[in-house]
Every structure is written in C-alpha cells, then in structure tokens.
Amino acid sequence: MKKITILTGILALMLSLSCTRELPLPVRNLNIEFKLPENFRSDIKYANQEVILTSASGVYKFTTNSEGVLVIPELIPDEYSISTSWKMTGVQYKQLITDAELVEDKATVVLKAGVGRKQLFTKEDFQLELDKLVLKSLLISKVYYSGTKDDANKNYIVDSYVEIYNNSDDTVYIDGKYLALAESMSPPAYPAKDNPDYIYARQICKFPGDGNDNPVAPGKSIVIAAKNARDHRTSASTSIDLSTADFEVKEAEGMGNPDVKALTILSNSLTIKFFNLMTGGGNAVFIFETEEDILSWPQYYAPGKTSGERFRRVPVSVVLDGVECLKNNTSTGPDINLKRFQSIVDAGFAFTNATSGYTHESIERKVSTFENGRVILKDVNNSTEDFVITLDPTPRKYDKPELLN
After folding, report:
1. How does the average pLDDT of the chain come out, rounded?
2. Which residue, 46, 153, 179, 198, is CA-closest to 110?
C-alpha cells in the first residue's frame, strides 16, 4: 500500500510538471499598420512589403496586405524586434507624393520603420510610422565658417571650409557641378518668401574636370578650403588641418597651396577672390548642376538699387542640396524671415551658438544609420533636424558622438 501511495504521488507530480511546461497560447490575428509619410498620395499604401520579426527563438518574415497592414495569423508570444523598408528611385518616389519635392531622379529614397524590443504576448494591434530617408548622391555635410582664436588670442578667420559627401551607393563625379552662396544683404535683397522659384547667388564656383576626373566614392567626401588650404593648427591650436583639402577656392592652379586643385569663382558679386563665408552667418550654401551656360543667366541689383552688388539668378529646379546657416542674434536668435532658401531646398535652418564667430563651431550633418559599415547621413530636407553644432570642426570625421545621437 505504501509503495502504491508513493507511485501515485510521483505520477501526480510528473503530471503537474508537465502541465506547467505547456507552451502558452499563440497570439492570433495580430495587425500591424504602417503609416506612410504625410506627403504621400492617399491612394498609396505600404502594400506587399516584407516585414521581419526577430526574437531569441527565430526570425520570421511576413508580407503586408494590399492595404498596407501586416496581418499575422499566428505568432509565438515573445519579445520581438521589428523592421521593414521600401527602397525606390527618385523618379518612383516623385510619382507617389503630392508635393513638388526637390529630389534627384537618380537618388535612392528609403522608407523604413522599426522597433527594437516589442513585447507581443497578447493580441494588441498597433501602428508604426515609416520614416523617409533620401539618399541623394551629393549632400553638403559640413559648413565651418565661425573661425576661431589664434594662439595670441586674436580672431582667426582663414580656416573655413565646406564638405560635400556622397550619400549614395554609386561613385559620383563632381566635375562640372557648382558650389554657390546666396546673397546675404541685410535686410535680405531676395528672401525666399518673396521668390519661390529662384535663388540669387553672390558667388558661384564651378568644379573642374571633363566628366570623370574627380570621383567621389560612396561614403566618401570632398573638402573645399574656402580661403587657405594649409594646416591652420600651426597658428591656431583650436583650428584644423586643411592641407589635404581636395579643392582650394583661388584664381588659378599653382596659387595658394600648389598641391591642392583650384576651385575658381565663375560668378562674383564683388571682387573677392575666396569663398566668402561670414563668421557670424548667414551663409546659405548650395550645390547645383546644369548644362546651361550660367553666365547667360541674368544678374540683378538689390531692389531699389542701380549700383553695388549684383546677384545671379539660379533656378531652384537645378539645385542638388542646400544648407541655410542663419545668423544668430543675441536677443532674438535666428530670424526665419532672413531665409534665402525655399522649403523645397531647405525647410529649416542651422546656426552657430556664437553671434559673431571665433568659437570654432561647425555645422555638421547627423549620421542616420550605417549600411554595410558605410555611414548614411541624415537628410529630411530640414537643416534644423539634419544638422548639429559641434566644437570639433575636423574635416571628414563622422564618428563624433554629437553626430550619432
């Protein structure tokens, strides 16, 4: 009798353990809706796109339905990371949106959504918003114009530069493209709010080359010394080394640093021989591309004037990228009414904390993500979102913590 009692107890314990180890019930008919950016047409859905759910137990791939909703019939309860993306060309993207966004036909546009740790233990439908990333072939990635103090604590203003980054998957040639500065009169001669179709440039430089002389590889950049391509740290320890710049704005080859290619000014509102970035701002810097003879484009004095500076009119339609760097005022901050760039070029603006410069502050584009070890820079066409201020103006450096946040 005692043996039978013990056996019965063991059987009961085993049965109890068996019950406690039963798998939990699966989550059924879970719906995840994907919301497209606001500028997409209402009839466009995130349809037939792959969505990947990853947990400790495995990787699961699903496809959204015709309404852009992912319906998961059955899912093991667990904590998941969720990711999805939709890659398209600039041509395809412009066919899907409602506004006239300035995107190159050969650009790559990526819609993506993801969440790192999502607990899915019960049926709780939810929505994920898709972020847009435009991988333009060329982006202005850094504008350093604030200057610094030299080792004698005097204003040092000859170390400014602009950096242009290849954010695409293909090698791009800078040959024949243009780097320009919009007018910077105070008050503005041609503010964006009154001029929707044109930017009025005070300086335009044209990159040399016959089409394949100056390649920019994916994830690489070119540095343009605005005034002097040398190691400025020998005079100002808080400055930078521009001796390895790719281009130097100057009149001809052999001048300045003879080892650095000349970037000549083709159109100039004054007789200044360098790229005239002002230490306190504003500096509206842009790059554009055209097959037209830009010297045939008309020039204009400021309204009401018949002498002084004349500004060459550049169509917004040819602009590849632009960064609006407004002047920061001590009491009021940046004034949005001073914008020279239309929203289609730059919906926001950047600025330095200093109101007059000499603080070695640089305006630099944030890092969005890494793709196969390559840096992809952020570009939502809004410099307020895309750029940060850094006190490390080192060219070609993209691992600064402030760029990664």
Report:
1. 90
2. 46
| Phi-psi category of residue 331: left, alpha or beta, with phi > 0 → left and psi -120 to 50 → alpha | alpha
Phi and psi based region of residue 373 (left: phi greater than 0; alpha: psi -120 to 50; beta: remaining): left
Phi, psi of 92 (to 5 degrees): -65, -40
Measured distance CA(113)–CA(345) in Å, rounded:
25
- Are 272 and 251 in contact by the 8 Å Cβ rule? The answer is no
Each residue's pLDDT tens digit, 169-213: 889 999 999 999 999 998 999 999 899 899 999 999 999 999 999
Q: How far apart are CA 10 and CA 54, in angstroms?
A: 39
DSSP line for 1-60:
-HHHHHHHHHHHHHHHHHHHTSPPPPEEEEEEEEEPPTTB-TT----S-EEEEEETTEEE
Burial 194-232 (b: 16+ CB within 10 A, else e): ebeebbbbbbbbbbbeeeeebebebbebbbbbbbbbbeb
Q: Tokens at residue 100, please?
A: 């006239």
Euclidean distance between CA atoms 164 and 289, whole angstroms: 14
Of 163, 241, 221, 164, nearest to 374 by C-alpha is 221
Distance (Å, whole) CA 49 – CA 372: 22
Distance of alpha carbon 280 from alpha carbon 352, whole angstroms: 8
Q: Residue 321 pairs with which residues in a beta bridge?
A: 287
Domains defined for the chain, CATH in brackets:
25-135 (2.60.40.10), 138-404 (no CATH)
CA distance 102 to 94: 9
Q: How much is the pTM?
A: 0.77
Q: Read off the pLDDT of residues 37-82 as tens digits, 9 standing for 90 and up.
A: 989 999 999 999 999 998 888 889 999 999 999 999 999 999 888 8
Query: How far, in Å, CA of 171 to CA of 221, rounded?
Result: 11
Rounding to the nearest 10 degrees, give the CA dihedral for residues 102, 401, 389, 142: -50
* Cα separation, 51 vs 60, whole angstroms: 8
The dihedral formed by the CA atoms of 189, 192, 295 and 260, expressed in degrees to the nearest 10: 100
Between CA 135 and CA 137 the distance in angstroms is: 6
**Whole-angstrom Cα Rg for the chain:** 28
CA 179 vs. chain centroid, Å, equals: 17
